[in-house]
Structures are given as structure tokens and as C-alpha cells.
Design goal:
The complex is a heterodimer of chains A (about 250) and B (about 270). Chain A is mainly α and about 250 residues long. In chain A, about 85% of the residues lie in helices and about 0% in strands. Chain B is an alpha/beta fold. The chains are: A mainly alpha (about 250), B alpha/beta (about 270). Chains A and B meet through helix 7, helix 8 and helix 10 of A and helix 4 of B.
Chain lengths: ~250, ~270
């Protein structure tokens, strides 16, 4: 038996067991449904376009927030990492704001921005800023001191030092930070939709629950899992490509 | 000018010498209350190779870093080429011991040499040719596209030297550059360093803990005493050039100097 078959054996067995159990019990549960009807519901929702539209909305907000928050976090992380006095000046402020759970900002966001994309993007962005900021700052702090000394000895200008030494040296860890932030982005986007924002996959799962349709609810759950998995695969591919290019340096011009 | 003529000028160790490439004048430096260098005065003549030895903690690397403008002395002055050192300069190149950390791992050999040219503002069109020539000079032709991690220690140190030569320095500051290499590679690089110095006429300030290396390379060997770092002895090396790994090291004068410096280090450590 090869590895793929081995890995699939347990999930397949569980699905069959769930199918048999739900069919035999005969109860019309509001929380569970037979896997077969979940599959039918998933295909139907994908077929009529509602699930794809929800996916588009969620991903738009997750990516929008990731890029806005990631960019702010990256710039602040670079600044704090490069300018130590600024880092010390901002330390208390950052440490005071950072522990606020991003979803705790939902009520304020709803009041100030209303329902829709910008509200959700703002909450996701808030969640992403800190991961990028803290990890970028740490990445810069972790740069080999000898490299910075070399940049002094060669008399690189400040801009040259940042773009030719600091960023390439910190890039591997910055990309890891971006992947972590991307994971948070999807979690926070779905949470905002379940809690407040009437759009996307989170709202889809909520509506399915409220319309007493466990098979559709579970279909959304399954689909969100698949989307998350796909996103992670995409990002790790991107990481390999980006790091490959980073390893090339800017010199091959 | 002949190297030999400069000995008289430089030997005085004072700062009054006009032709000096590097001049330390009464340099004091302490680090968190502990004196590292005390009243260091030394003049290195143009084109001279001065090797600095001494037990650990004698401030030999610190003296090099002061000359390179990486640290400022508390008092006293350092001049290179007659001009006071206020920070790192392009005509002063520093070769670090830890080549593995001093090279950019994400850049190829060519890219690492290019960094010095980019810093100097060399137009992109001229870089390729210069890089090729520099890699050729240190014996790395054909390795331009290799990354530092794909090279041996000796090759990596050659690469760092090529990057330093890209600055077209008049002064080379070398901080135990061959300390981490195996004996055979070290000897090869010693000879390459000597021929590069002879070819470019660069002044070399060479810190090492290897007495034989110091005698083999130097026109003068400066022995420092620790706590605080100060000059303990200055030995003039009159061995003929070009030097030869076998013959030079078998000469009576070489052995005499070796014994004298060995005794010096023994006393300095004791």
C-alpha cells in the first residue's frame, strides 16, 4: 500500500462510519448530516455560484487586509528595526495596542465603516500588522553584525545598505512572517463574517445554520478548510519562488 | 620607492614622518572602563607591510579597527595617507577573519565583488569587466557564478580579498585573515597576498597570532603587550624578497626572529 492510500485510509473509514451512523440513527439533527448529503449540498452550492461568490468576497477581504496590514507592518518593522531610538519611543504604544484581539474591534469598525469590504479589510489589516511588524523588526535585529560592518567599511549609502544588505538578509524571515499573517487573515475574515459582516463564507455558514440546513453548513466548513489548505500550498510555493529569486541577488542584471 | 628605504622613516614609530601611510599618535581607547589601548604611537610607511602580534587582549584587532575608522579612539589621533580618520574610507579596505560572515550569502562571487563597485558608484557597464579582472587576480576565474556556500574557506577568503581590492585601496587592513584556514591554503594565500601587495604597492597592516606568518610576511613585526595594549617590541625583518615558503623559513635570520618573538610572547603572556 503506498503512502497516499495509507494517509487516506483513516478519513475514508471515518466518512463511511459517519454515513452509516447518521443513516441508522434516523434522527433529523440540526448539527450533523450524512457525508453524502454534505457532498450533494457542496456541489449544489458550488454549481449555483453562491459558494464561489462567498469565497470571492472572503478572499478579497483576507487578501486586502493582508496587503494593507502587511505593508504597514513591514514598513513599521523596517523603521523600528533600523532606527533603534524610534523603536524605544514606540515600544510602549505598540505593546499596549498589540494585545487587543482584532475581533474586539468589530463593534467600532461596524459603527465607523458600516458593513462591507472596507470594514472587514480594516479588521483583518489590524490583525496582520503586528505579526509583520514584530517579525520584521526581529529579522532586522538578527542580521549578522559583520554584514552591517561590511556595509560600513564599503561605505554603502543608507539606501544601498537597506536595499542591498538589510532587506535581502531579513527576507527569509519576512516571508515566513507573511505566511503566518496570511493564515491569520483568513481566520479573522471568516470570524468577522460570522460575527457581523453579512457577506462571504463566514456569513454563508451562519445562514446555513440559521436556516436549519446542517448539510450546507458542513459543506461550507469543508470548503473553508479546502480554501485554507489551498492558500497555504500557494504561499509555500510562492515562498520557494521568492526565496529562489532572493538568493540570486540583484546583481544578475 | 624601495621598501628598504622606508624602514628608517617608519621605524621611529613617531608621527613626525611625512611619508607615513598610517599614523597612530598617542591613541587611547577604553571599553566600559577597561583600557584597551594606551598611548599607542606607530607610523607605517607607504608600501610597508607591518604585522602585529601579541597575546589575546593586547588590542591588536582594536588598533586595526581604529585605523579602519570602525571605532573612534578616546584620545589621540589616527591618520591614513596624511588625513585624519573620521570613519571608514574607500581607500582603506578591511579584510575580516570570518569570511563566512563577511560575504553576502545571497550573492554570487561576482555579486559580492560587485557590491564594492556599486558602493563606489561604478557604472553598471564597467562593472562586469572589473569583476572579471578582480576574480582573475585572486585566482577565482571560472567561479564567478558560485555562491559563497559553494566555495571552500580559502576561496571565500580570496573572494573577500577581491572585494576589498575592488575599492582600489592604498591601505589594506587584514585582521587574522588566514587564521581559520588549513596550513597549505594559508601558505598559498600568504604568497598571493605578498604578490598583490607588491603589485599594487598597497600598505598592509596585518594582524595575526601566528609568529612565523608575521615574520614571513612583514617588513616589520610589532609586538603588543596586553592590559592595556601598548607596543612592547618592534622587530625589523631584513629577509630578502621575494620570499619563499621553504628557503625563507630556513634562513638563520628567520629563526633568530622567531626565537626572539617567541620569547617576547612568552613574557607578555606570563
Amino acid at each position: 500500500m503506498n503512502r497516499a492510500a495509507k494517509a487516506l485510509a483513516v478519513p475514508a473509514l471515518l466518512l463511511v462510519a459517519a454515513e452509516i451512523a447518521t443513516r441508522l440513527s434516523g434522527t433529523t439533527s440540526l448539527a450533523v448530516a450524512p457525508p453524502s448529503s454534505v457532498a450533494v449540498a457542496l456541489l449544489a452550492a458550488l454549481g449555483d455560484g453562491t459558494m464561489l461568490a462567498a469565497t470571492r468576497d472572503t478572499l478579497a477581504c483576507a487578501f486586502g487586509g493582508l496587503f494593507v496590514g502587511g505593508a504597514i507592518g513591514l514598513v513599521l518593522g523596517l523603521l523600528f528595526g533600523l532606527v533603534r531610538p524610534l523603536d524605544r519611543l514606540m515600544e510602549l504604544t505598540v505593546e499596549a495596542i498589540r494585545p487587543i484581539p482584532s475581533v474586539a474591534l468589530i463593534p467600532i469598525g461596524m459603527l465607523s465603516l458600516g458593513f462591507g469590504y472596507s470594514f472587514e479589510i480594516a479588521i483583518v489589516a489590524f490583525a496582520c500588522v503586528w505579526t509583520m511588524l514584530i517579525m520584521t523588526r526581529a529579522a532586522i535585529g538578527g542580521i549578522e553584525p559583520r554584514l552591517l560592518e561590511v556595509s560600513r567599511a564599503l561605505r554603502l549609502s543608507t539606501l544601498q545598505r537597506i536595499f542591498k544588505i538589510v532587506i535581502p538578509a531579513a527576507l527569509p524571515r519576512i516571508i515566513v512572517a507573511f505566511r503566518l499573517a496570511a493564515g491569520f487573515a483568513l481566520v479573522v475574515a471568516v470570524t468577522v463574517e460570522i460575527a457581523a459582516n453579512p457577506q462571504g463564507m463566514g456569513y454563508g455558514i451562519l445562514i446555513a445554520q440559521q436556516s436549519l440546513s446542517p448539510q450546507l453548513m458542513l459543506a461550507y466548513l469543508l470548503w473553508i478548510g479546502l480554501v485554507g489548505y489551498g492558500l497555504n500550498v500557494l504561499l509555500s510555493l510562492a515562498q520557494q519562488r521568492l526565496l529562489g529569486r532572493a538568493a540570486m541577488g540583484e546583481v544578475r542584471q | 620607492m624601495e621598501r628598504a628605504d622606508l624602514h628608517g622613516l617608519a621605524e621611529a614609530g613617531a608621527c613626525a614622518v611625512g611619508a607615513a601611510a598610517i599614523e597612530f599618535h598617542n591613541v587611547d581607547l577604553s571599553y566600559s572602563g577597561k583600557p584597551i589601548l594606551a598611548g599607542l604611537s606607530l607610523a607605517v610607511g607607504k608600501g610597508e607591510i607591518v604585522c602585529v602580534i601579541g597575546p589575546s587582549g593586547c588590542g591588536k584587532t582594536t588598533a586595526l579597527r581604529v585605523a579602519g575608522g570602525l571605532i573612534k579612539p578616546d584620545s589621540g589621533s589616527v591618520k591614513v595617507g596624511g588625513k585624519p580618520v573620521t570613519g571608514p574610507r574607500r581607500d582603506v579596505a578591511i579584510v575580516f577573519q570570518d569570511y563566512g560572515k563577511a560575504l553576502l550569502p545571497w550573492r554570487t562571487a561576482a555579486g559580492n565583488v560587485s557590491l564594492a563597485l556599486e558602493a563606489a558608484g561604478t557604472p553598471a557597464r564597467q562593472r562586469k569587466e572589473r569583476i572579471h579582472a578582480l576574480l582573475e587576480k585572486v585566482g577565482l576565474h571560472g567561479h564567478a557564478d558560485k555562491y559563497p556556500t559553494e566555495m571552500s574557506g580559502g576561496m571565500q577568503q580570496r573572494l573577500q580579498i577581491a572585494r576589498c581590492l575592488a575599492q582600489e585601496p592604498s591601505v589594506l587592513l587584514m585582521d587574522e585573515p588566514f587564521g581559520a584556514l588549513d596550513a597549505m591554503t594559508r601558505q598559498t594565500l600568504q604568497d598571493e597576498m605578498l604578490s598583490i601587495a607588491a603589485e599594487t604597492g598597497a600598505t598592509v597592516f596585518f594582524v595575526t597570532h601566528d609568529l612565523e606568518e608575521a615574520i614571513y610576511l612583514g617588513d616589520r613585526v610589532i609586538g603588543l603587550l596586553p592590559n592595556p595594549g601598548r607596543i612592547g617590541t618592534i622587530a625589523k625583518v631584513t629577509l630578502p624578497r621575494p620570499r619563499n615558503q621553504l628557503e625563507t623559513r630556513e634562513m638563520a635570520e628567520f629563526l633568530r626572529l622567531r626565537r626572539a618573538l617567541f620569547d617576547f610572547i612568552g613574557k607578555a603572556e606570563g
